[in-house]
From TrEMBL, chain A:
Record domain ABC transporter: where: 15-242
Keyword Nucleotide-binding assigned: yes
GO biological process per UniProt: quaternary ammonium group transport
The entry's keywords: ATP-binding, Nucleotide-binding, Transport
InterPro entries reported for this sequence: AAA+_ATPase (IPR003593), ABC_transporter-like_ATP-bd (IPR003439), ABC_transporter-like_CS (IPR017871), ABC_transporter_ATP-bind (IPR050166), P-loop_NTPase (IPR027417)
Keyword Nucleotide-binding: yes
Signal peptide: none
SMART domains membership: AAA
Protein name: NitT/TauT family transport system ATP-binding protein
Stretches of the chain forming a coiled coil according to its record: none
One annotated GO molecular function: ATP binding
Family of this protein: Belongs to the ABC transporter superfamily.
Organism of this sequence: Belnapia rosea
From TrEMBL, chain B:
Any one GO CC term of the record: plasma membrane
Organism: Belnapia rosea
Function statement: Probably part of an ABC transporter complex. Probably responsible for the translocation of the substrate across the membrane.
Key word Transmembrane present: yes
Biological process (GO), any one: alkanesulfonate transmembrane transport
SUPFAM superfamilies in alphabetical order: MetI-like
Lipid bilayer topology: Multi-pass membrane protein
The keyword Transmembrane appears for this protein: yes
Highest taxon of the lineage: Bacteria
Protein name: NitT/TauT family transport system permease protein
Annotated ABC transmembrane type-1 domain residues: 83-263
Length: 262, 279
């Protein structure tokens, strides 16, 4: 049984965000964000829709540049996307013309690995996400949950040190969602990475994260940071879980109300 | 922590292909439709010849007459020679159009400044029916093979070019992001994301372009040719050989039909992943 609190074991900041802001034209999407994410920690970005969660994640991924401030990974400013920062999208973003196996082999292929090695790696990661036997299927033949498993395997097969996930389970039904949350933790505990996981589900954040970054709206900013000390595996009925859930809910509700009628 | 039980949800099981009896029924319906068409044609032709005598029977021969004309034309070798002449022009002209359309389309689709330059020119030329340029092509390239090939190439260029550009424009940006976060360079993106994503659209353009090549070659051969199926029809007209004119039309129809089946086969194979996506 693993009972270590990862925030206690790791200490080096993997991702540092210093005074980062993002503007789209005149609209300020994100303002004055300061965050340090410890190596191999699991952070959830939580907040209502439109508060800039994806914007922040995209800046770490290198899809967007901050309008002000800095985003550093391993102490170096982020300059565009890189194979060392894997991304999992809500829309799965699988290549429909590639089989599950070839989707997962994409990263190793780009790295110039031999065909046999690519396949071996892809097979291993598909098995890790519980999709052994589905190698030859095209994404069009997979359910939403299976597609997201392939997408996770594809990101992991590159062995990135940072894993960025933007509402990865947002389009899945409740049952599939909880199963995938458990499996994500199982995988992460076997093979630690620095994970940044965007969600607007409070219970998902408490179930998964070492740290929860609750975000403010109008303009987007960090509102409050919670360290979750409940040992894993966490029970949703645990009194501490319920208490934290209620506390965060009040906080998020205040942010939603700032948006007016929704 | 012990491994959780794995329950990949199997909601999207593969769909079985349509069962054999239904496919047979489909094929049967098609044959029936063709037979009914031939029957109506025969009735109108024979009825006119022997019963109501509305128009000169020479104007509408029976299907049998057309078949007879076909056998005769095959025996003299004329039909084969004309088919080969037309097909040769179509293949050369379409080949040029396909290469030029894809290459220019890819360049325009991936490089914005070029798009701003080329797009207005194309938009200016496209609404003009290619036939309007045929007499000019004959002036420029002479009455030989060159003018026909150039004409086909010109006409078929547009659908290939347009669908290639569209295909690239509508590549899902999230796929590009996914690939670049996996370490793809610009060249990788082009080769492994943009090109495959645009392929269905490009293939549609190729099919349209091939159809159009066929469409315009007949017209070109009416005007300036001494061989080919269009020439055969026009030549038969001057001698009032209506069966032979109809024969030309039927042969063109049959070739188009067969080529379309072949192209769809190639398409189905290249885009086999799509069957799944549609299901
Ligand atoms: N490319 C863009 N151009 C203009 N506005 C954008 C762009 N991306 C995001 N925004 C705006 O920035 C705000 C934050 O967006 P986003 O980060 O996607 O929020 P979240 O992921 O929390 O729902 C929203 O108001 C959104 O409309
Ligand atoms: Mg978002």
């Amino acid at each position: 049984m693993l009972v270590t609190a990862p925030s206690a074991t790791a200490s080096r900041p993997k991702v540092s965000i210093r005074g980062a802001a993002k503007q789209f034209g005149k609209m300020v999407a994100l303002q004055g964000v300061d965050l340090e994410l410890q190596e191999n920690s699991f952070t959830c970005l939580l907040g209502p829709s439109g508060c800039g969660k994806s914007t922040l994640l995209n800046m770490i991924a290198g899809f967007a540049e901050p309008s002000a401030g800095q985003v550093l990974v391993d102490g170096l400013p982020v300059k565009g996307p890189s194979a060392d920062r894997g991304v999992v999208f809500q829309e799965y973003a699988l290549f429909p013309w590639r089989t599950a196996l070839d989707n997962v082999a994409f990263g190793p292929m780009l790295k110039g690995r031999g065909k046999a090695e690519q396949q071996e790696i892809a097979r291993r990661y598909l098995a890790l996400v519980g999709l052994a036997g589905h190698e030859a299927k095209y994404p069009g033949n997979l359910s939403g949950g299976m597609k997201q498993r392939v997408a996770i395997a594809r990101a992991l097969a590159n062995d990135p040190s940072v894993l960025l996930m933007d509402e990865p389970f947002g389009a899945l039904d409740a049952q599939t969602r909880e199963t995938l949350q458990e499996e994500l933790l199982r995988i992460w505990e076997q093979d630690r990475k620095t994970v940044v996981f965007v969600t607007h589900s409070i219970s998902e954040a408490i179930f998964l994260a070492d740290r929860i970054v609750v975000m403010a709206t109008r303009p987007g900013a960090v509102k409050e940071v919670f360290d979750v000390e409940i040992p894993r595996p966490r029970e949703r009925s645990d009194p501490e879980f319920v208490r934290l859930e209620r506390e965060i809910k009040l906080l998020v509700r205040a942010e939603v109300q700032k948006l007016g009628v929704i | 922590m012990s491994a959780t039980t794995l329950t990949p949800d199997m909601a999207a099981a593969e769909r079985p292909p349509s069962p054999w009896p239904r496919r047979l029924a489909d094929a049967g319906m098609r044959c029936l439709a063709i037979l009914i068409f031939i029957a109506i044609w025969s009735v109108v032709s024979l009825g006119n010849q022997y019963l109501w005598k509305f128009f000169n029977p020479l104007l509408l021969p029976t299907p049998i007459d057309v078949v007879r004309a076909g056998i005769e034309a095959v025996q003299t070798g004329e039909l084969q020679a004309n088919i080969v002449a037309s097909m040769r022009r179509v293949i050369q002209g379409f080949g040029i159009a396909a290469i030029a359309g894809i290459v220019v389309g890819l360049a325009v689709g991936t490089w914005r400044p070029l798009e701003k330059l080329v797009e207005p020119m194309i938009e200016l030329l496209r609404p003009i029916p290619p036939l309007a340029f045929l007499p000019m092509m004959v002036l420029w390239f002479g009455i030989g093979e060159m003018s026909k090939i150039a004409f086909i190439a010109y006409a078929a260029f547009f659908p290939v070019f347009t669908t290639t550009v569209e295909g690239i424009k509508f590549v899902d940006p999230v796929l590009v992001r996914a690939a670049s976060s996996l370490g793809a360079s610009r060249m990788d993106l082009f080769r492994h994301v943009i090109l495959p994503a645009a392929t269905p659209s490009i293939i549609t353009g190729l099919r349209l372009g091939f159809g159009l090549s066929f469409f315009v070659i007949v017209a070109a051969e009416f005007i300036a040719a001494d061989s080919g199926l269009g020439y055969m029809i026009n030549d038969a007209r001057t001698f009032f050989l209506v069966s032979q004119m109809l024969l030309g039309a039927v042969v063109i129809g049959l070739i188009g039909f067969v080529v379309n089946i072949l192209l769809r086969g190639v398409e189905g194979w290249l885009l086999r992943w799509r069957v799944a996506t549609r299901g």
